[in-house]
Each structure stands twice: as C-alpha cells, then as structure tokens.
Amino acid sequence: NIKAVLQISSERVGLLGASDAADEALALHPNTVTSALIQHEVKDVGTHILVCAVSYLSLGGETQSFRKFYKFQVMKPIDIKTRFLNAELSNEVLVEAGVENITSGPICLEKVTLEPSPHYNVVAIDSLYPSLTGSTSSSPSSLPSSVFGNINVLNPHDTRQYLYCLTPKPGTNINRINSNKEVGAASVPPPPNTIGKLDIVWRSNMGDKGRLQTSQFVRSNTAVMLGDVAVRVVSIPASVTLEEPVPLILAIENNSDRSVEFMLEFLAGTGGCEWHDVTSRALPVIPVAATQHLHLKLLPLALGVQNICGVRLRDLSNPSYIMDVSKLGQVCVTAPERVAAPEHGSCDTVNAAAIITSLAALTVA
C-alpha cells in the first residue's frame, strides 16, 4: 500500500492511506505504474515535508518497504495591510485593505470581499453600482462591479487598495456606555468587537487557484472609539472682535467603560482663527461617565464667520489611537470699534490751529 503524510513543524497531516480501504492490497504488474492524486489546502507558511511510504510483498512473500521525503518551502503569495478609520459624526467604520502581490509572477484577483460579522452591514466603496446611473435591471450586468475591471491582474509587488464601509445594524450597541448599568430589567450588553474578515480568491499565471481568509478583525478594547468620547464647545461668545483673544470652554465627556487619559493637541486653523495657547498639553485622567471642562483661548484673525480650530486627542494608554475633532462650530468675527473723531471747536482743534498760524507767521518773517 501507499501512504502520504505532510509534516508541518510538529504537526502531521495524513493525506493518503489513512483510511481502512487503503490497507487493501494493490497488485502492481511488471512495467506498470500506479498513481494517486492528492489535494490539500496549505494554510501555513514555512517548511513542509511530504513523506511518502510504500510497503509491498515480494515474490518470496517477504514484506518490503521504503520511504521518500520531499521538502519544500511555502511562502506568502500576498501581503495584506489594513487600516481602520472611524467616521467623524457617525458610528460607521471604514476598513482600508491593501493587497500586495509578493510572488515572482502576476496573479489575477477573482474576488476580494469583506465578510462582516453579524453586527454590521458592509458596502464596498470601490465598487460601481449601476443603480446610481438609473438602471433598475436585475440582470448580472446590473450587479456591482469592481473599479479595477472584470480582469484584475496584479503584477509582482503591485498593490490594490480596497475600501469598505461598515455600518452597525439597528439595535447594535456600539458604544460601551455604562455597560454594567441596568436599563429597565436588562443590562446594556457590551459592544461587538469583531468587525469581519477578508476573503480573497486569486489565480496564478499558471491557472492555479489560491484562497486566503484573514482572521476576524477586532476592535481593540484598550482603545477608546469615537462614540465613547464626546468633544464639544459649551461656552463661547456669539460675536467676537478681530485680533482679541476670546475665552472658550471645551467639554470632553468620557462615555466609555474605563478611565481615559489624553494628550490634547491643537490643530492649525485655515487662517480665520488660531489657538492662543501652547501647542499641546497632557490632560488629567477622566473617570468613567465624567466630563472635563477646559478653559481655552481663541484668536480671531479674519472678519466674518470663521470655523473654530480643531483639536486632536491622543490616547496615552494606546498612542496609536488618534481622534481628530475638526468641527467644533463657528464664530462671527467683527471689526473693532473705531475711536470717535474730536468735535469741532475742541481744545485739540484750537491748539492745532494755533500751531499752524505760528508756523505761517515764522515763514512770512
């Protein structure tokens, strides 16, 4: 009989001859060849060893056997780099995925999709939707198509960028607001951390099919998400004067399930307003369900309605998490009041006239 085993580091996977039917004797006549087709989905990179063992009975009835070892390396065919972005004014999550071909030959990407978790709906932003052009047909040609075309060939070391928008399903608790507090008879469940996974199918330049599924993308529990922190202006004059510092009160509300500590950085304005403060400052720890008020100053530099400069919050427990808040409101900037001109006949006018008369008399003399 013939047996084949694939050895991967400390794991051995039986590919052929593991069943009871494989123990049946196979007659091999002189000058004949027998073969077996083995298919196995390789999921791990690194060194693989294929062990083929053959045992047979000789003409004298003696059991003989031999083994062959085939060692080969499994390399990553593609490299995936992902980035998560939180929408500024909603609970939407944007997932940007870069798929790079790191093989030595071109590959054809047949499918690149994001399979969302049960808590989210997904929309591929890099797809073309015929409904936008007014088509209502349900034929295959009316289905969303990729911006890269029907034949998506990826040359070595080239990268394709894919963008997906994940929206929480109705009733999904995304924010971890008072997760241990009872609401009525039931408690608010914790938010779903798993977002989804990428499913990629491609073919090599020889037509060999490959498939890769990533692990579930997880929203970090240590990072504070956008919905967990609210930043807003609670006090500012409706009308301010040009080039005069304006007092402003900024409120930062912690709605997460843990205490947070931020580094506050001031973003540059567009020229209409600028911050009148240091460039950054470390904020005290904000407890759960607490609000911290910051007294800041704004310097108007142009007349008219101007946008208030934005701020950036950097989580000190997870420095890679950055939250930019650019829309804090607007303020009306007016010109400063002019000093009234002196009235006719005042002392200043009389003195000026006397000086001019004296100068005229000296000139004549």
From TrEMBL:
<dbReference type="Pfam" id="PF23643">
    <property type="entry name" value="TRAPPC13_C"/>
</dbReference>
<dbReference type="InterPro" id="IPR055427">
    <property type="entry name" value="TRAPPC13_N"/>
</dbReference>
<dbReference type="Pfam" id="PF23647">
    <property type="entry name" value="TRAPPC13_M"/>
</dbReference>
<feature type="domain" description="Trafficking protein particle complex subunit 13 middle">
    <location>
        <begin position="78"/>
        <end position="219"/>
    </location>
</feature>
<dbReference type="InterPro" id="IPR010378">
    <property type="entry name" value="TRAPPC13"/>
</dbReference>
<dbReference type="InterPro" id="IPR055429">
    <property type="entry name" value="TRAPPC13_M"/>
</dbReference>
<dbReference type="GO" id="GO:1990072">
    <property type="term" value="C:TRAPPIII protein complex"/>
</dbReference>
<dbReference type="InterPro" id="IPR055428">
    <property type="entry name" value="TRAPPC13_C"/>
</dbReference>
<protein>
    <submittedName>
        <fullName>Trafficking protein particle complex subunit 13-like</fullName>
    </submittedName>
</protein>
<feature type="domain" description="Trafficking protein particle complex subunit 13 C-terminal">
    <location>
        <begin position="237"/>
        <end position="333"/>
    </location>
</feature>
<comment type="similarity">
    <text>Belongs to the TRAPPC13 family.</text>
</comment>
<dbReference type="Pfam" id="PF06159">
    <property type="entry name" value="TRAPPC13_N"/>
</dbReference>
<feature type="domain" description="Trafficking protein particle complex subunit 13 N-terminal">
    <location>
        <begin position="2"/>
        <end position="74"/>
    </location>
</feature>
